[in-house]
Amino acid sequence: METSLRVLGQEHPSTLTSMANLASTYRNQGRWKEAEDLEVQVMETRKRVLGQEHPSTLTSIANLASTFWNQGRWKEAEDLEVQVMETRKRVLGQEHPDTLTTMANLASTYRNQGRWKEAEDLEVQVMGTRKRVLGQEHPDTLISMNNLALTWKGLGRDKEALKLMEECVLLLTRIIGTNHPDTLSSRAILLKWQINELEIDP
């Protein structure tokens, strides 16, 4: 990054990519403040140089939202995610994978605040679109099923949540394998729910 900065300058795309990559490394290490400082720089520069609606600018905004999300700064994450979602809907279209990812991220932010109905509305849209566009067995569709099941559980719709999670785990096991982290995570949730059901209905 230092070399890019010195040779190419602060606003060169390669410099900004290097800064974004370093921010991602910080984020993966849980070094949130350092990640945030770089992400804000990259975002502001891309807004100024490339424009508010450029895909790279939107990626920068989404990355900063992710840093806020990982710190539980829900309101700040939400504000950025709504901005990215609305722009991607307008620029890329409702069914573009990047638009759907942003909708799923916003739903997750709502879910973490206990705003179950808002989360559900988005997750139903995302799952339905992914089923239609990507297919029932695509990994992104399966993640959507998992997320919607969690939201239904939060809404107290236990039977529906359990049924959807059972379907999700069966598909995950068959498609990405028994030992994949996503399969293990969903199976652990399902097992916990099944035990709870047995305790309620002995």
Automatic annotation (TrEMBL):
Q: Which GO terms describe its biological process?
A: microtubule-based movement
UniProt keywords, alphabetically: Cytoplasm, Repeat, TPR repeat
Q: What is its main location?
A: cytoplasm
Coiled-coil residue windows? none
Read off the Gene3D superfamilies from this record. Answer: Tetratricopeptide repeat domain (1.25.40.10)
Q: Which GO terms describe its cellular component?
A: cytoplasm; kinesin complex
InterPro entries, per database record? Kinesin_light, TPR-like_helical_dom_sf
Q: Which SUPFAM superfamilies match?
A: TPR-like
The entry lists its GO molecular-function terms as: kinesin binding
**Pfam families xref list:** TPR_10
Provide the protein's localization: Cytoplasm
Domain of life according to the entry: Eukaryota
- For the keyword Repeat, the answer is yes
Q: What is this protein called?
A: Putative kinesin light chain protein
- Protein's organism: Botryotinia fuckeliana (strain BcDW1) (Noble rot fungus)
